[in-house]
């Protein structure tokens, strides 16, 4: 097959070599999201053309023009550092303005696979978007609602690709079954011409191909080695037999692709949704092309939509997807493409543009909500439910007091308990931050962003922080649109005003009802267990248990013991731990993992940052002896605190509990 293609390419090139092309000569639009996808697309061109002589006003796309087989191709990539539905939609819109004769579209790149017993999807495989029930081949889902409810919250379908693409898919599938595909050979032919691409785009070592069980979670820090931390043994991995030599490899899968504005990084929910909808792949751009850019979505599998990124597979996955797209184009007669209706003449184009504007508006709304509060409650709530023991808190739900509060308008329920007793769902130290959190949660439930919230944002980006009064007024304005609201507040000592909403507050108990014993409390038990990690014999453990403190001073003693453990480390590890704790305790806002790494890498005698001086987050957490934890954040939220590129996971660095912050503030003179 590669030889036949080369012959056809040579024949076509001989006829077009002297021809000058105009924008109307291009009938196929190819959209990529990131650089590796763009590189893969460009290297598979049989011939590269000169850049366009002109582009439409306000078209900011960067185009590569060329030919594959007998089709003239326009290739565009999303702006650097951007990804998601609205970015893809903007690129498609501008492409159609500049190249009005485009008849078919391709969205080619990488995605996260959803392996099941039914679908043996592996890294390197290719997923092609096709419909099995006539309802569309890609559908858009709401990420936060899906995470929260653990079921797809569908928000739209991508129309099926044009008939000529779907019939060609069937023909190519038959061709592959009869002759076997030559995708690997096609990729190798590129490496023969451009050997420098092998390092990044060649097929990785099979040892790096790992499918972890859903309960194995990779640490948030990207630089932590997966095989070292998560293991390579059978208990943690799903062991699959090698593919038979007679099977296609990479394998081509045909089915439904799920698309949202955020990356799917949760194996439990991946498995649940894959079973529910027979999903083969998760990605973040295709739904942005809904209905106004009829296209085929082709995804090379580079990870398993979980916390294990498998970054080394991205280059090869992009090459495999592009190789499939090239095979597909070679089977399509040019006259059949030219016979299709122009995309920009569709009667639904106005609706498509309206959808684009709505998507961009939603993205701006997300930016404002993230400015109000960086906490992603959907992810946080799911993590709480995931980590709690079955039945935890059921006694509260069943209590008469809780039921009365639930069913009586305007009631306040105060749940008291000592620090670390397990009350916390969310917590903020300042009233302004508390109101901002409440305002965010109410505002994101509205179909459109309240004007008062937009006003606060405009003032905020000009350097005017929202006052307590302004936040209170905005909260009251937004609350009027809801018939009933339940607010749960943690660490609230007093409620001074009446309200039309029901408030559930947790607080430390009054002194006179404080229990002198804190045995059995969750946080203290965790701290005590951390203190035992340095003991190796039964005798040592029993002696350490006998020395554990009781009473309300137990927390201070536990933190003091943890500091003693830190100080007993090697001097270099001790110094790293104390510097990290100093940054975390004294920071005016929570630090991201990246910010903490940069702060610790600074050498006061140097004028420039030495990139060789970064410490892994894993090591920082380790030397802090249990005092530091990482709170997961979504990509958009983590971008507020760091300059990480899109698609990477980040986290917020915090002390293990607010009582630790109080301890350090009391004892900092020491």
Automatic annotation (TrEMBL):
One of its GO terms (biological process) is nucleoside metabolic process. Gene3D superfamilies: Nucleoside phosphorylase domain (3.40.50.1580). It comes from the Eukaryota. It holds the Pfam family WHD_GPIID. The keyword Repeat applies. Keywords: Repeat. The keyword Transcription does not apply. Residues 572-664 form the GPI inositol-deacylase winged helix domain. GO terms for molecular function: catalytic activity. Residues 391-426, 429-499 form the Nephrocystin 3-like N-terminal domain. This is Nucleoside phosphorylase domain-containing protein. It comes from Trichoderma breve.
């Amino acid at each position: 097959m590669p030889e036949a293609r080369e012959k056809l390419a040579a024949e076509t090139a001989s006829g077009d070599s002297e021809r000058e092309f105009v924008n109307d000569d291009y009938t196929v639009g190819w959209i990529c999201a990131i650089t590796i996808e763009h590189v893969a697309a460009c290297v598979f061109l049989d011939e590269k053309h000169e850049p366009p002589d002109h582009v439409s006003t306000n078209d900011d796309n960067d185009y590569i023009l060329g030919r594959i087989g007998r089709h003239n191709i326009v290739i565009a990539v999303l702006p650097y550092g951007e990804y998601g539905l609205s970015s893809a939609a903007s690129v498609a819109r501008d492409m159609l303005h500049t190249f009005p004769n485009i008849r078919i579209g391709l969205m080619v790149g990488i995605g996260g696979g959803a392996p099941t017993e039914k679908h043996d999807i592996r890294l390197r495989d290719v997923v092609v978007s096709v419909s099995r029930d006539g309802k569309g081949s890609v559908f858009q889902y709401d990420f936060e609602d899906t995470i929260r409810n653990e079921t797809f919250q569908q928000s739209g379908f991508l129309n099926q690709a044009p008939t000529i693409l779907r019939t060609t898919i069937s023909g190519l599938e038959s061709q592959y079954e009869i002759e076997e595909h030559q995708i690997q050979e096609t990729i190798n032919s590129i490496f023969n011409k451009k050997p420098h691409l092998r390092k990044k785009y060649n097929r990785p070592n099979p040892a790096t191909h790992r499918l972890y069980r859903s309960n194995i979670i990779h640490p948030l820090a990207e630089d932590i080695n997966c095989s070292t931390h998560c293991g390579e043994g059978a208990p943690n991995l799903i062991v699959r037999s090698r593919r038979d030599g007679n099977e296609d490899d990479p394998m081509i899968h045909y089915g439904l692709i799920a698309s949202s504005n955020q990356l799917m990084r949760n194996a439990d929910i991946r498995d649940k949704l894959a079973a529910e909808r027979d999903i083969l792949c998760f990605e973040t751009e295709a739904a942005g092309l809904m209905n106004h850019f009829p296209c085929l979505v082709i995804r090379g599998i580079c990870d398993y939509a979980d916390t294990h990124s498998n970054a080394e597979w991205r280059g090869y996955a992009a090459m495999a997807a592009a190789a499939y797209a090239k095979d597909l184009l070679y089977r399509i007669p040019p006259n059949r493409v030219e016979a299709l209706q122009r995309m920009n003449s569709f009667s639904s184009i106005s609706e498509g543009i309206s959808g684009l504007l709505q998507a961009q508006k939603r993205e701006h709304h997300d930016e404002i909500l993230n400015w109000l509060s960086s906490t992603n409650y959907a992810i946080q709530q799911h993590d709480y439910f995931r980590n709690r023991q079955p039945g935890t808190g059921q006694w509260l739900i069943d209590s008469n007091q809780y039921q009365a509060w639930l069913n009586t308008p305007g009631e306040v329920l105060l749940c008291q308990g000592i620090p670390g007793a397990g009350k916390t769902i969310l917590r903020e130290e300042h009233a302004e931050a508390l109101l901002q959190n409440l305002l965010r949660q109410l505002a994101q439930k509205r179909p459109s962003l309240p004007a008062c919230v937009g006003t606060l944002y405009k003032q905020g980006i000009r350097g005017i922080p929202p006052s307590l009064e302004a936040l209170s007024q905005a909260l009251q304005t937004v609350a009027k649109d809801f018939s009933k609201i339940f607010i749960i507040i943690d660490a609230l000592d007093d409620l001074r005003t009446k309200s039309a909403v029901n408030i559930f507050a947790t607080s430390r108990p009054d002194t006179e009802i404080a229990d002198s014993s804190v045995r059995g409390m969750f946080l203290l038990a965790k701290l005590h267990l951390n203190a035992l990690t340095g003991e190796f014999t039964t005798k040592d453990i029993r002696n350490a248990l006998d020395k554990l403190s009781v009473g309300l001073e137990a927390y201070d003693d536990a933190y003091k013991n943890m500091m003693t453990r830190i100080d007993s480390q090697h001097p270099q590890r001790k110094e790293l731990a104390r510097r990290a704790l100093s940054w975390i305790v004294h920071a005016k806002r929570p630090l991201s993992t990246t910010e903490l790494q940069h702060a610790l890498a600074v050498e006061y005698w140097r004028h420039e940052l030495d990139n060789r001086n970064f410490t892994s987050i894993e090591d920082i957490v380790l030397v802090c002896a249990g005092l530091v934890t990482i709170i997961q954040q979504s990509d958009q939220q983590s971008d507020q605190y760091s300059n990480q590129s899109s698609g990477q996971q980040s986290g917020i660095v915090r002390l293990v509990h607010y009582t630790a912050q109080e301890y350090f503030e009391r004892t900092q003179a020491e």
